[in-house]
Amino acid sequence: MKVLFDHQKFTTQRYGGISRYFANIIDQIRVAKDFDCEVGLLYSQNHYLKPNFNTLDKYLARPLNTERLARKLYDINEAYCKYLVGRNDFDIFHPTYYDTYFLRNLKKPLVTTIHDMTYEKLPEYFWAQDPLTRDKRLHTERADAIIAISETTKSDLIKYHDVDESKISVIYHGIDLEAPLMVDPVADLPEHYLLYVGDRSGYKNFYLFIDAFKILSEKHPDLNVILTGGGKLGIADLELLHRLKLEKKVKHVQVNDEQLNYLYQNALLFVYPSLHEGFGLPILEAFKASCPILLSKTPCFKEIAVDAVEYFEPHSLEDLYQKIETFIVDSSKRNGLIAKGKVRLQDFPLDHSIQKTLGLYRSL
């Protein structure tokens, strides 16, 4: 059985949860006796597909930092995917995101993965002209099988789209439980810091978190915040920190996976304040790195983390800073949740996730 994966997230992400999800599936297919696969890429800088730069990278890495040339690369990779779809030399097509370029010509079964329904649930936080919600709907209408990464995502999908429930399989993300935790030190870290991982856009609730930190920093002057992922701080982010006089206490660092593990490992607390998610892979990362976690009280987070974390009311500034305060002053609380996190992590083996996905392919 041959599975074709397309280019989308491998073109747009160097690091990222979605591209890592697909790379894990591809890695397993390449050692499975009854599977073969092809990835519709002429060139990519994705870390998970290509951990080592080749000669071509040395010439292309710098010019591809420009938006115009990066867009050109996207178009070239997409044209190649259209060619592969038209050639029809595969058994199943599993695109890595929601572009619909292939719908007219696809003749084989389609599997699509729904990572979350945040755009549908919280449309007020997104650009009205963004085609994502429409494209996602078209995927689900054409799909022969749909992977939802949590029961929450499945429930949201049924709520917002007229989709046949029998086509939906819930397959949780997984993490390699057997692999040792690989760490790479990050220089110039403060001794005491709260960790924030990922995007800082509206529904991620970043501004509530910073408002809470402002209150805490006045009581705990040695406390800092480390941000990672989500790109460099934007103008609005910098202005917020300037207004609150927090420029010296909030630092953004861009890190690889090994350095991210180091950040988790040394953080006082990982705070994930998002208003909605489809799964929350950083939860598993923090569990593995022995980092205590504070989450917003949302259905998905409660499904994934259960009682191995602390929760706060997602719109309550007072509840957020008070919950963080308890972690600062109570080391036994931190240690207790770290231990619970290790236990909960055992429910998410990567092998189980991959085998369920391959089983879904076989069923088609």
UniProtKB/TrEMBL annotation:
Keyword list, A-Z: Transferase
Pfam families for this protein: Glyco_transf_4, Glycos_transf_1
Q: Which residues form the Glycosyl transferase family domain?
A: 190-342
Output one GO MF annotation. glycosyltransferase activity
Record-annotated Glycosyltransferase subfamily 4-like N-terminal domain positions = 78-178
CDD domains this protein is in?
Answer: GT4_MtfB-like
Write out the GO biological process terms: lipopolysaccharide biosynthetic process
Report the transmembrane regions from the record: none
Q: Which SUPFAM superfamilies match?
A: UDP-Glycosyltransferase/glycogen phosphorylase
Q: Which residues form a coiled coil?
A: none
The protein's matches in InterPro entries, at most eight in alphabetical order, are given as: Glyco_trans_1 (IPR001296), Glyco_trans_4-like_N (IPR028098)
Q: Does the keyword Transferase apply?
A: yes
Q: What is the name attached to this protein's record? A: Glycosyltransferase involved in cell wall bisynthesis
